[in-house]
Design brief:
Elements: E1 2-8, E2 12-16, H1 36-45, E3 54-58, E4 63-66, E5 70-78, E6 81-83, E7 86-87, E8 93-96, E9 101-104, E10 109-117, E11 151-154, H2 160-165, H3 193-196, E12 216-217, E13 220-221, E14 256-263, H4 272-280, E15 283-285, E16 293-297, E17 308-313, E18 318-321, E19 327-330, E20 337-340, E21 342-346, H5 351-355, E22 362-367, H6 370-387, E23 402-404, H7 410-415, H8 421-431
Parallel strand pairs: 8-23, 14-22
Antiparallel strand pairs: 1-4, 1-11, 2-3, 3-10, 4-9, 5-8, 5-10, 6-7, 6-9, 12-13, 14-21, 15-16, 15-22, 16-19, 17-20, 18-19, 18-21
Length: about 425
């Protein structure tokens, strides 16, 4: 068995995948990665399916030793990753030797980094997911954050044959029976409206009579050969291990965030003044923010009458406003129901912005129509597809596309340059 030994658990490091959506009806939190874009990108960089489990590293990183050689990638927040004391580039495949130690020097940009290892973190599946819910002690590694002395099992690198068999550890978005964030789907299960809440916009359900079809994004099915690096075009069962990466597809975070929302479901519970305040004020994220929700200070959002309603379902990114008039954006570990009015919902393509925001960061909310929210999601999927992919002939990418710790630190410096143009290009395209 391949393993990783934790020498230091860091501030708050947990095992996460894309979450457990199908048990919300029973009051089970979805959990999963706060920044699913970053986790999916890391998984693609090492040849995993999007749904494979990785590590979510919050603010102060851990230290860990690889017992066997591995391919790894660190995405999301820049927390200063290094291998054996030498800085490594982020958002690229990194080859490590047996005995290599990964550590983090400290926060530079963003709040949460994501580590993926080829084969995925192979902790037991609990209720369809390997994600950790620390509130309930469910899933992950013993249902808790990692600490020194923990030994994490790592799966074998996935092959095309494994993916085709439908192993839930390596389920591929777009494959029959797969729902994003829902590893596997039995013929007897049927998606309910509450289960659909929180999935990526346009995500299909799953029923006995209708298997999940590929989600058409960016002109091709997500997860089809050519869009997921796990489907290498090389020899059968041998996905390309090295990924050609685009430096232009990587977000930067900073401390000022524009977050787009779609009004509803209870925006009519707020006065015109309250709705205007929500969209024009600058809100500051408070230190009470966590994986349950992002809390803000700022101008009060006025209700028409009461802030209380009969409890109903919640979804990722929904914006509750309690009696004090302050917005709370519900995140990965949110409860499955809530009894406060909800003025708007953060669009799926912008949830990562809040996942990478920290206390003291400033947020402005901007209303968009549903059609624009869908278009922004398609753009995000296109950016993700552009980030990594196999070589057209199925061969390995050029050597410089995989950072090997024996190659020296020169590559590390180049890995941080020219990182964040794709999103800017997208914005420029919309402004033309």
């Amino acid at each position: 068995m391949r393993t990783i030994e934790m020498l230091d658990g860091g501030l708050f490091t947990t095992v996460q995948d894309l979450g457990r959506l199908q048990y919300q009806r029973y009051g089970v939190a979805v959990s999963g990665a706060m920044d699913s874009f970053a986790l999916r990108a890391a998984n693609r960089l090492v040849g995993n399916a999007d749904s494979a489990a990785g590590l979510e590293v919050t603010l102060l990183g851990p230290e860990m030793r690889f017992a066997q050689p591995a391919q790894m990638a660190v995405t999301g927040a820049n927390l200063g990753p290094s291998v054996d004391g030498r800085p490594i580039p982020m958002w690229r495949t990194v080859a490590v030797r047996a005995g290599s130690v990964l550590s983090f020097s400290g926060q530079r940009d963003g709040m949460r980094a994501y580590l993926a290892v080829d084969g995925g973190i192979d902790v037991p599946v609990v209720l369809g997911s390997r994600s950790t819910s620390t509130r309930s002690g469910l899933g992950g590694f013993e249902g808790r954050p990692l600490r020194a002395g923990d030994v994490l099992p790592v799966g074998e690198p996935p092959s095309l044959a494994t993916l085709e068999r439908g192993d839930p550890r390596h389920a591929v978005p777009g494959a029959a029976g797969f729902v994003p964030g829902r590893p596997g789907c039995s013929a007897s299960e049927k998606a309910t409206p509450l289960e659909l809440a929180g999935r990526p916009l346009g995500s299909p359900g799953c029923s006995a009579s209708e298997k999940t079809t590929p989600l058409e994004l960016a002109g091709r099915p997500l997860g089809s050969p050519g869009s997921n690096p796990a489907f290498g075009n090389g020899p059968r069962g041998a996905p390309a291990r090295r990924r050609a990466r685009s430096r232009k597809a990587i977000p930067s975070y900073g401390h000022d965030h524009r977050v787009r929302v779609v009004f509803g479901p209870q925006d009519d519970a707020f006065s015109d003044e309250g709705r205007s305040t929500f969209l024009t004020a600058v809100y500051t994220m408070t230190s009470q923010s966590d994986r349950i929700g992002c809390r803000f200070d700022g101008p009060r959002i006025a209700h028409r009458t009461s802030a209380d309603i009969v409890s109903d379902g919640t979804t990722l990114g929904i914006v509750q406003v309690s009696g004090d008039g302050m917005p709370i954006v519900l995140m990965a570990d949110r409860g499955t129901t809530g009894g406060y009015t909800k003025i708007a919902t953060v669009i799926s393509a912008d949830v990562w912005r809040l996942a990478q925001a920290g206390p003291g960061d400033r947020v402005r909310f901007e209303a968009v129509a549903l059609d624009e929210a869908l278009e922004r999601l398609r753009e995000q999927e296109a950016v993700l597809d552009a980030l990594v992919g196999p070589e057209p002939d199925g061969s390995s990418a050029p050597d410089e596309d995989v950072y090997d710790e024996d190659a020296g630190s020169g590559l590390a410096a180049g890995g941080f340059g020219d990182l964040a143009d794709a999103l800017d290009e997208t914005r420029r395209g919309r402004n033309r």
